[in-house]
Specification:
The chain is α/β, with parallel strands linked by helices. The chain is built from five helices and 13 strands. A hairpin with a 2-residue loop joins β12 (169-177) and β13. The longest helix has 14 residues, at 191-204.
Length: 205
């Protein structure tokens, strides 16, 4: 196993790297298409703005290689913005295309619903795929740490989902297909449940 940690000049690399070290793994930085050679599992930590992340990936010629990696079904774990960019676009960055691997678009929580924006804190997530190895041993509704203002309106039935309820509004908190997993929450900040999810990704992928 050779884990690649995609470095696009931002994100939450150190926290994810520390989580992997806690599990006994030593990830390798991926900063260019050439760095993907020999990588078996790719993780994209997310922290930042949708349009900026896509611009930084383009600057490093990583957009098409990343899209090809995911559509080929290779093990990929996207976190936060690394989850959002799988979709076709986001209201956070009008006119900027996402990878378009998953049908749907990211929208902002509505303030008129009385929600605090961003959603910041712990929340339960319900996996819809009961037979998924990614969620093995995590129970019916594991809790994870969220920090976000945007979430995807998911319209792609080919991808299995996990759902979270924030102040009465249910939204897609994770998607998975084959060996590809992506989530809105931060597993690297979610203590035992987060570490278990990362370990399951590495084991199942």
């Amino acid at each position: 196993m050779n884990i690649g940690l995609l470095n696009y000049g931002g994100g939450n690399l150190r926290s994810v790297e520390n989580a992997l070290h806690a599990l006994g793994y030593d990830p390798q930085p991926v900063c260019s298409p050439q760095d993907l050679e020999g990588i078996t599992h790719l993780i994209l930590p997310g922290q930042g703005e949708f349009g900026d992340v896509m611009a930084q990936l383009a600057k490093r010629d990583l957009v098409e290689p990343l899209k090809e990696w995911i559509t080929a079904g290779k093990p990929y774990f996207g976190i936060c913005v690394g989850f959002q960019i799988l979709f076709e676009g986001s209201d956070e960055a009008p006119g900027v295309d996402g990878l378009g691997v998953v049908q749907g678009r990211c929208v902002r929580f509505r303030e008129e619903d009385g929600k605090k924006i961003p959603q910041m804190g712990w929340n339960g997530t319900v996996p819809q795929a009961e037979d998924s190895g990614f969620w093995k041993g995590l129970g019916a509704e594991p809790y994870f740490y969220f920090v976000h203002s945007y979430y995807p309106v998911h319209t792609d039935d080919e991808w299995k989902t996990s759902v979270t309820d924030y102040a009465g509004e249910k939204f897609t908190a994770a998607v998975e297909k084959g060996k590809v997993l992506a989530c809105q929450f931060h597993p690297e900040k979610s203590q035992d449940a987060g570490l278990a999810l990362i370990q399951n990704f590495l084991t199942e992928g």
